[in-house]
Amino acid sequence: MMFKHLVPLRNGFNKERTSRLKARLFFLSTIFGSILLVFFFCEFLVYYLVIVKCSWPEVKGAHKEDSTPVLKVMFLADTHLLGEIRGHWLDKLRREWQMERSYQSALWLLQPDIVFILGDVFDEGKWSIPQAWSSDVARFQKMFRHPPHTQLIVLVGNHDIGFHYDMTVYKLSRFEKTFNFTSGKLVSPKGINFVLLNSMALEGDDCHICRAAEDQLRRISIKLNCSRMREHPDFQKKCKNVEKTPVSAPILLQHYPLYRISDSECTGEDSASPEEKKVLFKEKYDVLSQDASEKLLQLLQPRLILSGHTHSACEVLHQGKIPEISVPSFSWRNRNNPSFIMGSITATKYSLAKCFLPTENTIIYIYCTASVLLTGYVLACLWLCICQRIHSGRKQKPI
C-alpha cells in the first residue's frame, strides 16, 4: 500500500515507452515500406506501365471479318548477354534484369505469335569456351522464356560466332545446334515468308561456310521464284521438283544492314548520335558489301528488310522501293532508350510500329529522387526526436 503513489508514475512511464516504440516502428516501417515501393516500381511495375502504351498496328485494308491471317511479330536485336571475360557481375545483374523484365512484360501484355532476335544474342560468343557457352545459353533461356503459343527464332550475329575472319565451323555449328538456326533458312508461319541469313557468311570469298550459305540462298531463291510463277505456263516444267512455298514476297532478316554509306540520313530519337552519323561505314564490318547487298535484292526480291548491328534506329529505301528497318539494341548497355519493333503482317501487307522501353536515365532519376526524399525524411525525424528530448529534459529539470 505504501507504493500506491508510484502506480500513476509507472503507468505514465509505460505509456511513454509504448508511444516511443510505436513512433519508432512507424518510422522504420515508413522507411522500409518506401524503399520496397520504389524498388517494386522501378524493377517491376514501370515495365508494364510503359509497354502497355504500345499496341499492334493495324494492317491497312485488312478487316476483322477478313479471313486473311495476321501474324503478330516482335523484332528485337543486340541483346549482348555479357560473358565471363568482360562482364562485371553488377553490369550483368542490372542490364540482364532490364531485358528480362522488358521481354516478359511485353510477352504478357502483347501476346505475339512469334519473336525474332536479329543477332548478337551474346557479347562473348565468339570467345566462349564450352562451359562459358553453356552458362550463357542457360541464362538466355531463363531470360527469354516464352509460352508454347509464342515462337522464338534467333538469328546469328558477329558477337555470337565472330566476324568472317574469326568465324569457324565449330562456332557456327554450336550456334546452329543451340538455336536451330541455318545459314540461309526459309520459314513461313501463317503463309508469310521470312528469309533468315547469316551476314558473316556473305563475304563472297568462296570460303567453305560462305559457299554453303550462298548455295542455300540460291535454293531459297528458286523456291520463291517458283511460288511467284504458279500461274505461268512453264510452272510445271520449271518447278516440278521444287518444294512449294506460300505465295508471299519474303521479308529478309539478318544481323548486318544492307550496304549504306553511313547513318547520316537516319532520323528519330533513337537514331545514332550526330557524331556517329558522320562516321562512314566499312563494308563487311558495319554493313554488308555493296555486291552482296545487290545480290540479295536480286535473288530474293524482298518486300521488307529488318536488321540490327548498329544499335541505333534507321530506315532507308533500297532501289527506291524496298524499305529496310535497322532495329535498335534491346539493352541499356548499348543505349539509354532501347526499343523493339512490332509488326502486323499478312501474306501481302504489313504495318510496323515501335515500342520504347523504360529509359535507364528515368530509373536512375527515380532512385536518386527517392533517396533524397528519404534522406530528408530521416534527417527531419532525427531533428524532431532531438528537439523532443531537449524539451523533455527541460521539463524534468527541477526549479
TrEMBL record:
Its cofactor is Mn(2+). Residues 71-312 form the Calcineurin-like phosphoesterase domain. The chain crosses the membrane at residues 25-50, 364-387. It holds the Pfam family Metallophos. SUPFAM superfamilies: Metallo-dependent phosphatases. The keyword Hydrolase applies. Keywords: ER-Golgi transport, GPI-anchor biosynthesis, Hydrolase, Manganese, Membrane, Metal-binding, Transmembrane, Transmembrane helix, Transport. GO terms for cellular component: endomembrane system; endoplasmic reticulum-Golgi intermediate compartment membrane. GO terms for molecular function: metal ion binding; phosphoric diester hydrolase activity. It is found in: Endoplasmic reticulum-Golgi intermediate compartment membrane. The keyword Transport applies. It is a multi-pass membrane protein. One of its GO terms (biological process) is endoplasmic reticulum to Golgi vesicle-mediated transport. Metallophosphoesterase that catalyzes the removal of a side-chain ethanolamine-phosphate (EtNP) from the second mannose of the GPI-anchor protein intermediate. Participates in the glycan remodeling steps of GPI-anchor maturation to allow an efficient transport of GPI-anchor proteins from the endoplasmic reticulum to the Golgi. Belongs to the metallophosphoesterase superfamily. MPPE1 family. This is Metallophosphoesterase 1. It comes from Xenopus laevis (African clawed frog).
